Amino acid sequence: MIQVMLWRKVVESIHGGRGKWVFLPNKNALAGCWKTIVSFLDSLTVQGKKISQFVRGKLGNGDIMRFWHDLWFGSVLLKDRWPTLYRLERNKSCSIASRVKRGEDGFLFVGNWSRHPASVEELSEKQDLDRMLLEFCFSDREDSWEWMDSVDGRFSVAMCKKLLRLNRDQEN
């Protein structure tokens, strides 16, 4: 898992930036293969879904996955589900483990806010977040990723190729 994190850091340091996060980061000023791959995959939809929607985090101990930027709960990134809370967050790349702690009555969100949520919208989003934590559970294993279009959650090039061919055949 450490090698995966290192690879992610390399790609993000070259192509990421300014607090923006996307499934496949790309710096438009740089030409090359990576830019072509990202452009193709960003425009590709399969079965009405973007490729990024086929990859989902499987929560383990919460040390690796990012609370706001990785798809690990529900069907949208939490930064998009709760945009006003995300704006208040000081460390937008924080891990799940750094934001969710076990309390006496279950799990609690431990925010690192620029200020405490105060508006009706912020408080409503915070209530929704607190409700989400009622379903929350850590495990002893490391965080991992699942390919949502397979029975066992494992990605394979053959399965992806089959999915792309099926999509091509349906378009023709």
Q: Can you give me a brief rundown of this structure?
A:
By secondary structure, this protein is an alpha+beta fold.
Supply the key terms:
alpha+beta, 172 residues, two-stranded antiparallel ribbon, single chain, 12% strand, RNA-directed DNA polymerase, eukaryota, Reverse transcriptase zinc-binding domain protein, 39% helix
Question: What does this 3D model show about the protein?
Answer:
The protein has 172 residues and is an alpha+beta fold. Strand 1 and strand 2 form a beta hairpin. The protein has a domain at 61-164. The model has no long low-confidence stretch (mean pLDDT 83). The chain has seven helices and six strands, in the order H-H-E-E-E-H-H-H-E-E-H-E-H. The protein has a two-stranded antiparallel ribbon. A two-stranded antiparallel sheet has the order 3-6. A two-stranded antiparallel sheet has the order 4-5. This is RNA-directed DNA polymerase, eukaryota, Reverse transcriptase zinc-binding domain protein.
Strand order of the largest sheet: 1-2
C-alpha Rg, in Å?
A: 18 Å
- Sketch the major β-sheet: 2 strands, antiparallel
Helicity level, as a percent range?
Answer: 25-40%
Instruction: Estimate what percentage of residues fall within beta strands.
Output: 5-15%
- Treating each run of at least 4 consecutive H or I residues as one helix, how many helices? 7
Structural class: alpha+beta
Average per-residue pLDDT, rounded, comes to 83
Overall 3D form: globular
Count of β-strands: 6
Spans of at least 5 consecutive residues with low confidence: none
What is the N-to-C order of secondary-structure elements (H for helix, E for strand)?
HHEEEHHHEEHEH
Distance between the termini: 40 Å
